[in-house]
Amino acid sequence: MENLRMEEVLKKYFGYSSFRPSQKDIILQILRGRDSLVVMATGSGKSLCYQIPPLISGKTAVVISPLLSLMQDQVMSLKQRGIKAEYVGSTQMDQTVISSAECGHFNILYMTPEKATSVSSKFWSNLQKVGISLLAVDEAHCISEWGHDFRREYKQLHNLRGFLINIPFVGLTATATEKVRRDIIQSLKMKDPYVAIGSFDRPNLFYGVKHFDRGDSFVEELVREITKHVANAGSTIIYCTTVKDTEQIFESLRAAGVQAGIYHGQMTAKARQDSHRSFIRDELLVMVATVAFGMGIDKPNIRCVIHYGCPKSLESYYQESGRCGRDGISSVCWLYFTRSDFAKGHFYLEESQSKTHREAVMQSLMAAQRYCSLATCRRKSLLEYFGEQVSFTNCGNCDTCTSSNKARERDMSEEAFLLLTCIQSCGSRWGLNMPIDVLRGSRSRKILDKNYDKLQLYGLGKKHSSNWWKALGDQLIVHGYLVENVSDIYRTVRVSSSGLEFLRASSTAYHPPLLLIVTSEMADEEEESAHCKVQGDFQNLASEEYKEFSETEAKLYQMLLGLRERLARSTGTAPYAVCGDQTIKNMAKIRPSTKARLANMDGVNQHLVAMYGDEFLLHIGRLSSELDLPRDGEALTVQIVSTRKVPSNSERKLAPAKFSAWKMWMEDCHTLTEIANFPGRAAPLKEATVAEYILEAAREGFSISWSRFFKETDCQFEILLEIQSAVAKVGSTERLKPIKEELPEHVSYMHIKAYLTMQKLGVSLDEIKGHEESCKPEECILGTSSGGANVCGSKHTRIEESEVEDTHPSKSLKSGTGEDNTMLEATESRILELLQNQNGVSLPMIMDHFKGSTKEQVVNLLNFLEGEFLLYKRNDLYSIM
Ligand SMILES: Nc1ncnc2c1ncn2[C@@H]1O[C@H](COP(=O)(O)OP(=O)(O)OP(=O)(O)O)[C@@H](O)[C@H]1O
């Protein structure tokens, strides 16, 4: 039942038809009163985990958030979804908010940590009397001194435990190392918390890094390229490391006629607020900012984040670039760095910091430097930095993976030999600068004092620039030939054991080949040509945006974006709060003609239909006929997803035989047995092999009906529970054998693999159980059809009228009134009554029930009820809202 309510609430308020991995489990745990810690990537949908429970339980959720601007934006978006939300904080002008809040008037109440810990105990006891569903601590890493954003006030939040008895505390963050996680749990005094840790991957983001020369000519190039693409590409943030850079780029963009804004810590609070507000309302296309414009950005449709200079750590980079593409649509992150960015360690240090802290700051900067110097997959390195195990070596969506690195490989054994030997000759006491200066024959005082000019290697590396050698040094560190250490703020390099091995195998006349990639920085240094560095970097922004459209559809999309902006202005909200870009894309593609069709689209919620439905339908109607586009096209298979766009099989790596097995099973409803023995096959396949194919398809992102899969492979829910405990006992999923040994004989490897695949994809056992329960034989619409498909959970199962009648001629639905339905006519209330307490009913069954009405009459009534959000359709089944 909880499951059912959750889906209804999701559609009604948020317009989405399914939960993302993990969301459902987390919500269920919270609803059961369990403290929870949610560590999931930016844009993965954490907010929903605390926004849904109050809508189900009818009790207020209190959310602690660090920034007023963030709270205001979230409240604005929630109000646009028809959710009662407010915030309390210094900028709240409405004095009645507190008194309304303590009467339980709001579904969601945002508070700053200062307010939450200073408000009277009476407030909490009053609110608790009417009901509190949870206390959420957003950006929970601020609790920990180990986190990159420590806030002292967050440390006091545990005091609220004294007022909020038996209320689940929920911590949410997008960045938390194990240390920080432990800190959050301890600091919030969580008891046996449910901990959900998701992947940090942001598959829709393209990561690129380039070396650049700071100066007017680069700024000119950057501005020129941005000007070219920004009008069609959506919002952009340019992060700068200094206020001076921020001002320079802002002025240049303005001079070029780009609607740009500026945001940094030296501006007045009012000026910052205005800038922020205009940006989220799409009145400004580009925001040039320092990191002060960081956490408080809730805008989901930022398409590009540019770093003009390397940030101080990878944590900061992940957080700042993470503002991009939070709605799951393809977006681009470019980082431009100069070598001088890496010498700024002292700049990020405060005098009061301890040696350990100083070293931590230096380590962070070194990690960022390594990321910039990479010649291998950036995504892999980023994810591994955050402790994730990554099996791929080529993500296909970063600059190093999309350029043909092979072509840029070169034997650099001679240069590596020189650098490694020189580091040793200088006593391994320095960073890279000193040995490189020696190689380049510098006559600096330090070198002469140390007599390094007498070394045999002195001056042998003149043919390359200092930066070229540094880039080589970075690669040698990444590949493990050199080890970099830090002591206080000083960095030193020494030759590692692999490096020593390389040196041992070398002589002056021979070096073992050492193939390394000529990075873009090295290539630039070699060429010394003033070619445009930025050209093409934002090319794919505009093209991605229109990829799925015909020319006329692209026009319609633009017009609908314009309409959304006008509607937002008229109600004083931001366009993205009216609905997401993906929803507008769907509208341009489907061009719904009725409220019901609009309501049935992914991303369309009840409030949108009620507030703006008529306007959208009117404009879609008019514009479609002007552009000669037919209405009610196919629904997009692309949903608003956190994973990479749903690709066709050509983009996926599924072998044709596997794809065809998946298609036969999922779309043509053949059983595993039928597919295994399909006539025309040279030799029959094993059923287990077909099952393996289906699992592989699932891992590649193809949807499958899990309940049907388990039914066909004879895997009852109890078996899944047994596997779950076996996995917990073994503590690792790397090898299947130890898991199998913990299980009874009848549990097969196939069952274990299926369970692990399900886990990997974030499908919860609750979900399977829910399906299993709703598939009890007497409630099942089709049972097993001739094709063997069970309707539950399968999006693709076709429900033919005749099938329903043939398979279960005696199984008509009983209306609660017990009316004889021989010639019963359908009415709105009768349909609603019929659907009450049913887990989804198909159109043929409804028609079968109302024999006194034609199909057209029934469909019209269903459309009306759907448009009014009194019922909703999912997988071709109607359910009551
Ligand atoms: N089940 C879902 N289906 C489709 N879209 C969803 C779903 N859940 C969330 N979203 C959308 O994903 C986007 C990001 O969600 P959300 O703001 O909750 O992310 P977050 O994890 O809290 O990010 P951040 O760390 O930046 O705060 C929003 O536009 C949201 O509406």
Automatic annotation (TrEMBL):
One of its GO terms (biological process) is DNA replication. This is ATP-dependent DNA helicase. Keywords: ATP-binding, DNA-binding, Helicase, Hydrolase, Isomerase, Nucleotide-binding, Nucleus. The keyword Nucleotide-binding applies. Residues 218-369 form the Helicase C-terminal domain. SUPFAM superfamilies: HRDC-like, P-loop containing nucleoside triphosphate hydrolases, Winged helix' DNA-binding domain. It comes from Aristolochia fimbriata (White veined hardy Dutchman's pipe vine). Residues 800-809 have a biased composition (Basic and acidic residues). Residues 800-821 are annotated as: Disordered.
